Amino acid sequence: MKRITLALTLLGLSSTVLAGHLGDTVITPTGVNLVAPESSGTWAFGVEGSDVRASGNEFTYGQLSPIVASPTNNHENLQVTNHSEWGASADIDYKFANSSRDIMVAYTHYDLDDGSTTNVGANQILTAPGGIPLNGGIFPFGVLLDGSSVKATVDNDVNAIDVLFGQQIKIGERVDLHPFAGIRWADIQNTDKARYNSIFLTNYVQNQFKFHSDFQGIGPRAGMDVSVHTNSGISFVGSAGGSLLVGDLDSKFDNDFYGILAAQNSSLAFKNDQQHHVVPEFDARVGIDYAFAYSHRTAVNVQVGYQAVDYFDVVGMDLADTLTPNSINNTSNFGYYGPYLRGVLTFI
């Protein structure tokens, strides 16, 4: 499995560094003291790995039913199950000299892939969803019979870049607040594929389906980091943020038929008109951070926790709209959630 989203919560508290007045110590959000020269800023470099699972964009590619219908029959909806995969993000943060303000640039990429295969058994039929047309001239009655199979895959790609400005606020000796604001750019692509294989008159016939949705947008982002320090270098951290992205949503699907004869082969391509779209995003995380100092100028933070990210109405899902003009455009949410591991190197 590969997993490079997205997650899309890019900030850990330990990536922000504070400075007080001239000659004061510089304090990372986890409580490690660094002595800063009066005219020097502080740099922090963070990397993060996340073992997350996609949510909100499940792909249903068929229904498995008995050939002989009865009120007691079970009908199984076939769906690609999302599994956990790893992703990554990286960021660089600069704390301005003689100030408690900072600027961060962060990049996140997730590539969440899943797949499923179904074989049609004796006395069973497999019917494709209404939005996936099976060629009745190739597939008898538009269904798959005994000996047929379906292979379905889902590919979710998330890329995001944040540019954020923050302000450190100390409450006593143990609590740090870090409100931040800036902009986020995001590109979220979702691709569903299904390959229907069947045997007709001892010959293999095939139908290949592909649906693709792509949103690219940019907009404001704001949120708050919180850390509560202990005396042992351990801090309890949390973060919540949101974005409002404005951009374009494109969706299309392709259908390729491969029959017994070359004359039966055909390809169909349908594309929805580009939509100008507004996508709200919300993310949150909680974790535990441990800090230790190599010297009075260098500190390392290790943080583990759990995160959740959700983009609302970001995936175009209306297959019918590509065939029927003026129908209602349907959209779906997309997100991911799971544990993360983060490391930060801070130095003056």
Task: Report on the architecture of this protein.
- It is a single chain.
- With 348 residues, the chain is an all-beta fold.
- It has one domain.
- The chain has a ten-stranded antiparallel beta barrel.
- 39% of the residues are buried.
Question: What profile does the largest beta sheet have?
Answer: 10 strands, antiparallel, barrel
The shape is: elongated
Distance between the termini: 39 Å
Q: Counting H and I runs of at least 4 residues, what is the number of helices? A: 0
Derived structural class: mainly beta
Percent of residues in helices comes to under 10%
pLDDT averaged over residues: 81
Q: Could you state the order of secondary-structure elements as H and E? A: EEEEEEEEEEEEEEEEEEE
Number of domains: 1
Q: Give the strand order of the largest sheet, numbering strands 1, 2, ... along the chain.
A: 4-7-8-11-13-14-15-17-18-19
Strand content: over 45%
Q: How large is the radius of gyration?
A: 26 Å
By DSSP, the count of extended strands is 19
Give a concise summary.
This protein is 0% helix and 67% strand. With 348 residues, the chain is an all-beta fold.
Keywords:
348 residues, mainly beta, ten-stranded antiparallel β-barrel, four-stranded antiparallel beta sheet, 67% strand, elongated
